[in-house]
């Protein structure tokens, strides 16, 4: 290949149209014609140079290998030199055969080196064709084997359209012919299909219907290794803040592909037996939410704070000014106080909302209420008036307040309706993101979450043997088993300390008139005792006599929060100064040099998000740099005075670069493409610190699918 151009199938064809044997005769005849026509030699040279340069450049741009490009240039030079000479001298004279022979031998001698290079090109051409033939034969054999396995499993009427394989898995795509085995029928034939494909372990074969395809398209995946038994270490903390609108990963699919979802505007439920990995999944979800600059976390821990304890340790010991959680509760009364507060906040936000949904931001953060062991709330809610009121309000929040950025995550070991109580179906039916860990049987999944076996894609959650193995059911998500990341509890305090700089505050308009429960959430006797127990390393005994006051409000005052960074101002139509405040916090926490480096990475991520949203709002596929700089300056004062070169430096760690936008834009300005900025949002920044490079966060390579002819 030449200069990085893609190799094409014509890279050897330069030898086909420039055969030096026929070239000698053609040039000889052309020279005679030029002499007879009386064309000036200077004009011949000019035409030869222009034509030769154009031809050589075309070959270079077409991706010919360097030897072919050099050969083309040499042919053009010889042709130009001979033509200019022949235009002034009669090279063919029937009355002077000796002179004619000398001229012909001279031309042949000049072309001899070219003939040698031409032979080299032909040899390479033959080797290329041979390699392509061998590769095609291996692909055909593999296709034949996969096709035969599908037929041997009893599946009829499936035509393979593409297939690819890598070290981790084989993937093939099929079209179902009319009258052929349907997708649901094929799901009942997974075991025969595993036998026919010689799968290395049970559950290695998966059938999926690709998103966006028609009902007759099926994708078959056969994993060569499963990561369900592996320990997947939690990726390092992100250098800069993320957004709840980003795709957040809790682990990987069993074939190694990164499993990431958008959790904004989604209610999740997670069910599973004891020791199935539910607490580990909850910690990974907390870590994801804590890394977001536009998400507040409220949590209710019915297990006397066993999950919240590790996340609050650096705050309780005075190491950080702001806790990961905005509110922590322990009892049904706390749930009632929280959902009542969410209902009030939703009303406040609905009055000022523009459009169908609010867009979470540091000034208007999403709020996620996480309830561990929700069975303690639901089981006897029909007989307990306080629990019944809490559940009714909780269901109202789940049903009606997603558009205000209020979402709920519930976790339970008890997966059957008889344990969860009469309100369980109302609550669980509203969840859009269902995590299923190990259960007794698929029937239990259907009875609890109304999920049929066909929705599980052949995955049987009752056969999960390793904690942290789960199946996530959500529209558009892969129907394949996953393994959650492993986050050791001893690592949680350090991660919580890192996220302190990212924690937002409740917007002032919603904070006005907050209930006394919210006002005193960090100073009430129970929370004081809990923080003291964490600081002193003692066990915490829950005192139910100090339950939360759920009704009384403190109007006209901001809530008394835990010590925190400066609260964000109401943005209105003016740009905020959030980035400048973040810079001060990072400088204070990490020092001037390290803090500035982290600040630049955070600015780059925020800039990508603002740029992506701006380009999408214009409906175009790109935007000039000047327009994007104006949008950035309007979004945050931390971008004021930013020059194009400074913006390029901010985006460089995310592998996003400016490009010429082309003639479609007036003046062909430099700018940024939507595809590049959106891709940059999903990347972790490239830094000089090797510890920040996490190979585990990169998607496993997909098999390259080769289309059947």
From TrEMBL:
Positions of region (Disordered): 675-709
UniProt keyword Transmembrane helix present: yes
Keyword field: Membrane, Transmembrane, Transmembrane helix
InterPro entries: P-loop_NTPase
Bilayer-crossing regions: 25-57, 69-90, 102-123
Sequence ranges of Basic and acidic residues compositional bias: 681-696
Superkingdom of origin organism: Bacteria
Coiled coil: none
Name of the protein described by the UniProt record: DUF4133 domain-containing protein
Organism, scientific name: Glycomyces paridis
